[in-house]
Amino acid sequence: MYAQMVDTGVKAVQAAADMTADEKAFQARIDADIRVEPKEWMPEAYRRTLIRQISQHAHSEIVGMLPEGNWITRAPTLKRKAILMAKVQDEGGHGLYLYAAAETLGVSRDRMVDDLHAGRAKYSSIFNYPTLTWADIGTIGWLVDGAAIMNQIPLCRCSFGPYARAMVRICKEESFHQRQGYDIMLALARGTPEQKAMAQDALDRWWWPSLMMFGPPDAQSVHSAQSAAWKIKILSNDELRQRFVDQTVPQADYLGLTVPDPELNWDAERGHYDFGPIDWAEFHNVIKGNGPCNRERLRTRVKAWEDGAWVREAAMAHAEKRAVRAAARVAPPAGADGGERTARVDAMA
Ligand code: BYC
């Protein structure tokens, strides 16, 4: 359906001349900022794009629980431990809202989980890096949640209703996450020289992978043009990356830490920071499955799924029992003329 630009694989926007009448009417509604709801007609490619992006996003939240979960037993104080547990639980909740939003598009949760476990589905590159010290937990909150918010605030205005609404709540929670991360960094940066060095080391390791979270440069972003036309993407990968750098560098300055980029420079004319080249070979290698932790992350997810089978079975058995009991309660006494009502309750169960 789309014209492919041969050299980069970047997809062009579908031209109005190639659209059916339904597609033209759909695009006109998008252009008028009318939200799309699940039961309304939508082009198959729009549905597929959303299923791809929302399910990848859901997987990122669920896999994102792992690097932080790794530090729950080793948090330095009871208070930090309680906060980290709440944050990791929030990420699980975000995954569930997002799986539910994707389900409204006609894909089953089992199918999405299966794709993740089989290595067919992507999730954010960032979660394939290890959390080596407590400062990594601060850095994830500060940089990774910071990048996530930067990307997700515009998604609150995206064209698909359930995704946009899920994003509102997720962004509120992410902003608490970002602040808790920055608070950890502040404590370390104001601590002993060893603590400050630990904070600097974490920034050195997480800075570039955080910039990669926004995806490939616009010129190489396969989906950007069409997603922008459909208002699934409001700001481009490069615009968001620039905003993130502009916001984060002064925060690093406040901490007294150095961003590991010798080319970082405030360009007064542009009103933005210039920054050095990103190692896109590393990014592609990580999303192909060859990052430092890809295999470990998938192994852990699959094991958690298998270990949780009894919980899912018990929940199903409990739901069935409740449905049978409810049906029995509503059933009329023998001989009464309530056959139709009983049948309806059985159908609901
Ligand atoms: N990692 O054409 P492009 C969180 C893929 S979780 C891996 O630019 P698009 C948090 C891309 O999927 C944060 N893959 O794509 C959780 C595509 O591959 P496919 C997650 C990436 O979709 C726990 C190909 O590269 N946030 O916040 O237009 C704790 C070409 O890219 C990445 C979201 O998911 C990457 N970084 O734009 C703490 C936000 N980047 O599908 C925090 C929602 C690109 O063709 N997603 N790829 O095989 C989006 O906004 C967009 O999907 C992206 C990419 C901006 C990420």
Distinct ligands, ions and cofactors found in the model? benzoyl coenzyme A
Question: Unreliable runs, pLDDT <50, ≥5 residues?
Answer: 1-8, 338-349
Largest sheet: 2 strands, antiparallel
Tally of individual helices:
13
What percent of the residues sit in helical stretches (DSSP H or I)?
Answer: 55-70%
Distance between the termini: 43 Å
Large-scale geometry: globular
Proportion in β-strands: under 5%
**If you average the pLDDT, what whole number results?**
92
Radius of gyration: 24 Å
Would you list the SSEs in sequence order as H and E?
HHHHHHHHHEEHHHH
Strand order of the largest sheet: 1-2
Task: Name the structural class.
Answer: mainly alpha
**Would you report the number of β strands?**
2
Write the layout of secondary structure elements.
Blueprint: H1 21-31, H2 44-69, H3 78-103, H4 109-117, H5 134-155, H6 161-189, H7 193-212, H8 224-229, H9 237-255, E1 265-267, E2 272-274, H10 280-290, H11 294-307, H12 309-330, H13 339-348
Helix pairs in contact: 2-3, 3-6, 5-6, 5-7, 5-9, 12-13
Residues 52-53, 56-57, 60-61, 64, 91, 122, 124-125, 144-145, 148, 151, 212-216, 221-224, 227, 233, 237, 287 line the site of benzoyl coenzyme A.
